[in-house]
Predict the 3D structure of the following.
Amino acid sequence: MELRPYQLEIARAVLESIEDQRGLTLSVEIARQGGKNELSAHIGVLLLTMFMLRGGSAVKCSPTFKPQTVISMMRLKQRLDDFGFRGLWEAEMGYIIRLGAACQVFLSAEETSSVVGHTADILLEIDESQDVGKDKYTRDFRPMASSTNATTVHYGTPWDDSTLLEEVKLMNLELEKKDGLKRHFRFDWQEVARYNPAYRAFVDAERARLGADHPLFLSQYALLPVRNTGGFLSRAQIAMLQGTHDRQARRESESKVYVAGLDLAGEAEVTDEPGMMLRGRDAAVLTIAEVANRADDSAMDGTSIEVVEHYCWTGRKHPELYRELAHILKHTWRCSSVVADATGVGEGVASFLRTSLGGCVVPFKFTQSSKSALGFSLLAAVNSGRLKLYRADGSRDYLEMMFEFERARSVSRPNRTINFFVEPSAGHDDYLISLALCVEAAARLVPRRAEGIVRE
């Protein structure tokens, strides 16, 4: 079987544990697209071959049945065909692959899945272990290996310090200190790139696009867990945002392209005095940016985003705000793309703007996953140097924006999602969210590129 040296090292450890009946629990971290699932499929072919006469079953679970479990089954079928077993293996019940008396069972680790009753007397594999619930694993899957003390392998990439994979990894590292037997295997993108120059080029481009400290790059390629809680933007990132261009009051040229992000607030009676800081009030904030091509940028999408103006309203009645927003977006700037908060009270305003301005207005519904994607995109734009603010002008808008950036926090969530916000006791995040929506508006002007989890 043609495997890379780091894959062979893991395969030998798994097979030795099975053959010697050690019943080890191993943890494996391989950088994304480094061959983790290919390794698992090769091990599956070998075990089915070894046990096809004496019998036995191996179990592999994934966080979801579709697409992850289905993809794993397809890969094993292909490898069985490659190694000469075409027409000899059989598929049963939609989730079992049998070769002679041995079988490989594929199960979903979703919380609602019913998996009790299966036995993993050869091997138990937990794919994407960082996304599998600890209680689900302990209650439903771990007992499958108990009757024969079967070997267990957890595959995945880090996320934060609360995941099942992280828990198993730390336990394995402690056991290694005691008996010297290696149980944890870690191969980051640089190790994978030693054997695949094309992979190195791809990851270099991803690092340029996302930034070396982007949560997805850290977890999926550098194999480093993200902070469970902390500042959303570091001082270095805030410094990277500082631009040298002037603030603008209106569109400068017919040839320039402008976009906008709108974060909306609820209606209220205006009680603030003119010029009063907004820290105690929720505000509607509109961010305007110029989007231009970057001739020197070959690693990313080739665009720069320069924030040129802010508008802020507190307590404004929505019928009044409709008209003012429509005039600003259509006549003052003639924006090519507008992403507007359409969650809760914002839905009516976003709908009105879309009716007035047409398809250039995209309503944005905030959910856990959509806000996380928004945060990842904002971080990528900051880290790559594509996003710049107008030069510091001492204005109320600029001071409030910097205040929010410095106090913004982030919290990691399961399934590689994050939340970013300003604690209510510290103020609001209106400028921060409006900026993120503006980056989303810019992204809709160019062909989209995936920024989420790439499943092998």
